[in-house]
Amino acid sequence: MILFWAFVMGGLICVVGQMMFDVFKLTPAHTMSILVVAGAVLDGFGLYEPFIKFAGAGATVPITSFGNSLVHGAMQEAEKHGLIGVVTGMFEVTSAGISAAIIFGVIGALFFKPKG
């Protein structure tokens, strides 16, 4: 059943993003920013963790999870190290994903020729 809910919830997040493109005529940058901020706000109010427990990968794979990770890491480190922890916490939690994206992007650029 977890696979079903992951598919449905992840799909709903994607539907919201697509509606931002089609109905509201927002650019990809605006849409992505709104979804990241939505994930951050939901985590700030303590609502994203229960959503992750319910939806599993349907909540952790979309871009809203990036906002969740930023706020979650910042709040966690702020409790330990104060104000400096806010800055370091964001980078500590998200650094693995950002590093992987950069590394795989470079590898992809080495093996594939862009069309143009």
How would you describe this structure in keywords?
116 residues; mainly alpha; single chain
Molecular structure report:
The protein has 116 residues and is mainly alpha-helical. The protein has one domain. The chain contains six helices and no strands. The longest helix has 29 residues. The protein is globular and about 50 Å long. The termini are far apart. The model has no long low-confidence stretch (mean pLDDT 89).
What can be said about the biggest beta sheet?
none
Low-confidence stretches: none
Number of domains: 1
Tell how many strands the DSSP assignment holds.
0
What is this structure, in a nutshell?
The chain crosses the membrane at residues 6-24, 31-48, 54-71, 83-112. By secondary structure, the chain is mostly helical.
Map the helices and strands:
Blueprint: H1 2-22, H2 28-44, H3 48-55, H4 57-60, H5 64-81, H6 83-111
Organism: Heyndrickxia ginsengihumi
Keywords: Membrane, Transmembrane, Transmembrane helix
InterPro entries: Spore_V_AE, SpoVA
